[in-house]
């Protein structure tokens, strides 16, 4: 009796584990027409730690630049620059969206190339311990100053996927809309109006989200070898950005924390300045 009950339980467990594998289906529109999405390839890389890290140094909070917004919660991070909006789990984040300019990078003096800068939109990178769902663009600046740039998405702690076949040029506007359909499934849309495509992913069985934070971030990310060298970049805007709660409430950027990257020695490498309820600008400092 005992042993058969146990084996049934184990089989159920194995079945549950087997069905819980993340899966996704891609579709692609080019110039407004549905095309074969098999032109795209999703190249898995090990998951990257895009979570918010606290800095070692502590700076005196200050208001940079325009400062004409009700947002003036300033926070510091060793890897994040941008806006982070927290909501209560009672009516959590249903979707997060925004346009941003793909990073246009140049070599930062005094740091060995290759250098990197990522920009992304995501859910749950700040406070949720179980998952982070995000999509964006990474620009790599090589030793000769040339740039290579690619779009990617990741549902941490699952793999990160570089999306081969989606062209992005530095400075292109990218629209990302991530809509959760449950705590473990989502519709992710990536649109680049200059290159005239929209890619949509229908994702299932993702790691469990908390849906308590929406984020619009420029990042000096960590890979398996530690934090990558951070490239210099032109001012980068996030516009028409916002979120919607699961219950359908519109959420703007007012009240979001504006996050700055602070190096170990206390210098600010990147700052985020509010502009209005749906936009802000990120500046690189050297
Ligand atoms: C984001 O995508 C969802 C699902 O496709 C859609 O219902 C919603 O209107 C989109 N949000 C915006 C701001 O376009
Ligand atoms: C950083 O990039 C900006 C925009 O391209 C440029 O104006 C600035 O001179 C660069 N800074 C350094 C130190 O190269
Ligand atoms: C910011 O936008 C949100 C969502 O649209 C709205 O509910 C809120 O009232 C706006 N805040 C201000 C100060 O306009």
From the structure above, extract its key features.
1 helix, binds 2-acetamido-2-deoxy-beta-D-glucopyranose, disordered N terminus, two-stranded antiparallel sheet, 6% helix, 286 residues, mainly beta, 19-stranded mixed β-sheet, 23 strands, single chain, Jelly Rolls
Structural topology:
Elements: H1 2-19, E1 23-30, E2 33-35, E3 41-45, E4 73-77, E5 80-86, E6 93-101, E7 105-106, E8 115-123, E9 132-141, E10 147-156, E11 160-164, E12 173-182, E13 185-192, E14 197-204, E15 213-219, E16 222-223, E17 226-227, E18 232-233, E19 236-245, E20 250-251, E21 257-262, E22 268-276, E23 279-284
Parallel strand pairs: 4-21
Antiparallel strand pairs: 1-2, 1-14, 3-11, 5-15, 5-21, 6-12, 6-19, 7-18, 8-9, 8-15, 9-10, 10-11, 12-13, 13-14, 16-17, 19-20, 19-23, 21-22, 22-23
The structure holds 2-acetamido-2-deoxy-beta-D-glucopyranose (NAG) (3 copies).
The site of one 2-acetamido-2-deoxy-beta-D-glucopyranose (NAG) has 6 residues, from loops.
Describe, in plain words, how this protein is organized in 3D:
There is one protein chain. By secondary structure, this protein is mainly beta. The chain has one domain: Peptidase G1 (Jelly Rolls). The protein is 6% helix and 51% strand. The chain has a 19-stranded mixed sheet that branches. A two-stranded antiparallel sheet has the order 7-18. The chain is globular and about 45 Å long. The N and C termini lie far apart (69 Å). The relative contact order is 0.26. One of its GO terms (biological process) is proteolysis. Keywords: Signal. InterPro entries: ConA-like_dom_sf, Peptidase_G1, Peptidase_G1_sf. One of its GO terms (molecular function) is glutamic-type endopeptidase activity.
